[in-house]
Amino acid sequence: MPPRVDKEKCDGCKAEEETLCEQICPGDLMTLGENKKAYCRQPRDCWDCMSCTKVCPVGAIETRMPYQLGYHGAKLVPMMGTDNITWTCVDIHGNVERFRYKNRVEPE
Amino acid sequence: MEKIVPKIGIFIWNQGGRLSQAVDLEGLVKKFSKAKNAARCEFVDELWTTAFFDSLRSAVENKQIDRFLWVGRFTSYQMKYIKGQFSAAGLNPYLHEWVDLEDQGICLKDTAPEIRAAKAASLIQMALARNRLLEPLNPMELPASDAILIIGAGVAGLHAAESLSALGKQVHLVEKESGVGGKVALLSRFYPRICDPHCGLEFTLQKLSESDHVAFHTLSRVEALSGSPGNYMAAVQKKPRYVSETKCNACGECLTVCPKEIPGAFPVSETMKAIHSPFPMSFPSAFVVEREHCPPECRECEKICPAKAVDLNQAPSEDQLRVGAVLITTGWDLYPLSKVEEYGYGRFDNIISNLEMEQLLSSHTRQPGKSAKLSLNDLKEVGFIQCAGSRDERHLPYCSSVCCSATLKQILYFKELVPEAKCYVFYQHIRSSGFEEDLYRKAREMGDVTFVRERPATVALDEQKGKLNVTVLDPLLDKEITMDLDLLVLAGGMCPSQGTRETAQVLKLPQNHYQFFESHLQCHPEEGQRTGIYVGGSCREPMNVSQSIDSSHRSAMQALKYLAGTVLIEPTYPVVNKTKCDQCKRCMEECPFSSFVFDEKEFPTPDLARCRQCGNCMGICPLAVISLNNNTIKQMAVQIEAVNTSFMGKKEPVILALLCENDAYKAARAAVDQGLPVPPNAIIIKVSCAGSVNNAVIADALSLGIDGILIGGCKDDQCHYVKGSQLVQKRSGDLSDKLKTMMIEPERVRFVNLEIRDANKYVEVLNTYIHDLKAMGPNPFKI
Q1: What is the pLDDT of residue B583?
Q2: Measured distance CA(B523)–CA(B540) in Å, rounded
């Protein structure tokens, strides 16, 4: 399921030519609308990679789970730390699981 | 490159036994002697002995220790002393780290000893982690110009120019009019001494014209400003004057041949010729040609000029000026009185503004016989309406502060010239503050000056008598009175001048909601919201003449630091990691002082001379790739990683308090010093501004199991860095919303406003937060 942009929160990366989600999307699907809010221009082509969700500086993007993975109510939420990422998985019954991974491992 | 392994010397200063009473220092020493990278760990009773520092110095020289971690409460003087002790041994002063255990409440008696020990250990562990990443830094010195650009040669600009040129600084005075002096040159008299302003102007101009350091750029405008403090480059466009300033000796021959009469500056002013002196006693005295009024093909003035000064073919020119700082003294304009419709300004000839009244009052000093519409001696009854435009929500909501005294001054001088005249003042309140009260007293004691505490209800022209019929409800008599007046003077309000607005645009300088220039009055006095650009005089707020001279002198004083020939830059400036930056330019948008510029590869990079090192860029960067030197995001991250999340035991919540070092941290410290019952749950990290806290850091803390994050910043309008508090509130709000989707209580991130003396409030905030966190239960990430 494609990313959903919270129009209240999205600030169009302060009206830059290319928003962060636009830069990062591997399918080049995210773009800035005329209202200076980002949107996914071809929802069917989205791979659910969640790059845009992770990169959004104001936390305006949410990726809905595709129905093959979880039905309505299921969620997968990333939170980016300095050198780590924290995932929260919520299934349709409201069971929560959380994972924290180091994603930027620098040599000692 | 060989990786340098830090060798940290950890020294715990017992502070005369204060620390050892609170925690087991020997235990700490034992623990940290074996810590990673610790070269030495000792606790010291007698710190301030020569022998102690000598032994350490030799350890530094023998490369046994290459950085220090000092535990204890050190004053800034002591820190400076310690840094100085090792600089001779070649240790960079930025390789010291300080941990104040007392600030964090270690010595509070109410806390259980095991909690104190665990907290102290955690704090030292955190500082150690941070210490490992310290880098040696050196201050930078950039070459700078010793010239200053002063925009607006009114009384404020001229006085600042005089003082700066006396100090040997090169001064460029840019003035859009043909003569300097600004509004003051139009006045008839100054208060409080009711003396002639030209006398004071002459006095200043004399010195300025004799100085080798002053360049006047009249009929000029600043078109662009580039560069940074110490090294600005200003493009100044000069309109043609058509008369050479050096050749013209103001003999006036041209006036006899000029065929064109043009109206004066104001409706009440006398007419003048198309070629004329800028104004009586102007500086420069050279005439100016208003070319747009010249009849085509007329070159009479050029022909007759005995000094060959007139050149009607002159073209505009542009100058590039290299200056270290800019001082804006663009002053004020009179509020357009035709907007105050009820008083009929512009409809009747005998309703004039107070600025025109000044012209009228000084008209007797000029030759009679010109076609002036009003003559002083015909005026027998004159009314003055105060607050015409000011203190009025439909016009200027603020008090223009000078009009009361200006009117009183005009009355005193007018009565001197026309003693038999009667004056009426219609006012709301007379705000002649300070010694200006004398003017009010004198005017009242004069007789024939009536003060009516109400504004006129109607103003109409009695065409038969040619007088103004004014009706007003006198609140003292409680009845309506009417009078026929020869002249009505409106005390118009002061608003930012046209030049102020244009300058704001060219220099991209923020203005306040009244369009005056604004800055942080206490923290960055007299400086605009851009480093190196100062504002003085009435473009800051309504001021009288002496106040604006004071103000411009203060600004000049501040500007001196960029006129020293070099600009010294603290090395703790922000650095952008360009391998990870993706040029989103958010830092450029959000920097409170607009200090980010593009480098040659279009990466945003801070202009170090402009930067005030608040760290808001570090906080705002979505990818967390901007860091202040020796105060990096990485350092914050490792510090947080080193927090022992269970030092309070399993049940008590642990709070990470990220406090602004200017206000909130001081409040927390005061709470301990005042012996308030500060709960031990909070571990404080001092930050340069609440706005420097990046969301990634908070995410780190939450995912490591810290129960609550408390961000303490100044009140919104009090932040030293203008908007740090607002920015962090917005960001932490966004993060709270994200927590909600993660099924975590959004309240785990909380922002509080703390002022420097809010010690009680800090304790209260902590207690409520602990209470709330207990209700929420532990952070789900807590192991």
Answers
A1: 87
A2: 16
Instruction: Give the CA distances from residue A107 to residues A37, A81, A104, B109, in Å, rounded to whole numbers and listed in that order.
Output: 39, 18, 10, 43
Q: Is A73 left (phi over 0), alpha (psi -120 to 50) or beta?
A: left
8 Å CB contact of B696 and A58: no
Contact between chains at B699 and A59 (C-beta distance less than 8 A): no
Q: How far is B615 from chain A (nearest CA, A)?
A: 16
| Range B413-442 average pLDDT | 92
What is the structure's pLDDT at B286? 92
Q: Which of B492, B564, B465 minimizes the C-alpha distance to B346?
A: B492
Q: How far apart are CA B445 and CA B439, in angstroms?
A: 10
Chain A residues in contact with B703 (beta carbon < 8 A)? 79, 81, 84, 86, 100
Cα B728 from Cα B695, distance rounded (Å): 9
Of B120-134, B239-253, B525-539, the one with minimum mean pLDDT is: B525-539
User: Cα B620 to chain center, whole Å?
Assistant: 22
Active site residues per annotation of A: 47
| Of A42-46, B21-25, B333-337, B510-514, highest mean pLDDT | B333-337
**Mean pLDDT throughout B689-705?**
94
**Dihedral (CA of B57, B63, B67, B71) sign:** negative
Q: Name the helix (H) or strand (E) containing B638.
A: helix B633-641
Residues of A within 8 A of B746 (CB-CB) are none
Instruction: Name every chain B residue with its beta carbon within 8 A of the beta carbon of A56.
Output: 622
Q: How confident is the model at residue B2 (pLDDT cuts 50, 70, 90)?
A: low
Contact A90 B738 (CB under 8 A): no
Mean pLDDT, rounded, for B396-419: 93
Decide if pLDDT at B714 tops 50: yes
Residue A30 pLDDT greater than 70, yes or no: yes
SS3 category, B157: helix
Cβ <8 Å between B781 and A58? no
CB B703 to CB A58 under 8 A? no
Sort out which chain B residues have CB atoms less than 8 A from A98's CB and list them: 742, 780-781
Residue of chain A with shortest Cα separation from B132: A108
Indicate whether this complex's ipTM tops 0.90. Answer: yes
Residues whose CB falls within 8 Å of the CB of residue B513, separated by 6 or more in sequence, listed in order: none
Give me the residue from B585, B590, B696 closest to A80, CB to CB: B696
Name the burial class of residue A6, with classes exposed (0-12), middle (13-18) and buried (19+) by CB atoms within 10 angstroms of its CB: middle
- In chain B, what residues touch A94 (CB-CB under 8 Å)? 743
Q: CB–CB of B694 and A57 under 8 A?
A: no
Amino acid occupying residue A24: I
* Residue B227 Cα, gap to closest chain A Cα (Å): 24
- What SS3 state is found at B232? strand
Q: B2 CA to chain A: closest CA distance, Å?
A: 12
Burial group, residue A1, by CB count within 10 angstroms (0-12, 13-18, 19+): middle
Q: Is B236 exposed, middle or buried (0-12, 13-18, 19+ CB in 10 A)?
A: buried
DSSP H or E segment with residue B650: none
Alpha helix ranges (H) inside B508-599 = 545-559, 586-590
To the nearest whole Å, the CA of A33 is away from the closest chain B CA by 17
Mark yes or no for CB contact A14/B585 under 8 Å: yes
pLDDT at A15 (0 to 100): 63
The per-residue pLDDT for range B93-142, each reduced to its tens digit, is: 999 999 999 899 888 888 888 999 999 999 999 999 999 999 999 999 99
Q: Is the pLDDT of residue B364 over 80?
A: no
Pairing state of beta strands B147-151 and B325-328?
Answer: parallel
Quick one: closest CA in B to A11, which residue? B586
What is the chain A residue with the closest CA to B580? A104
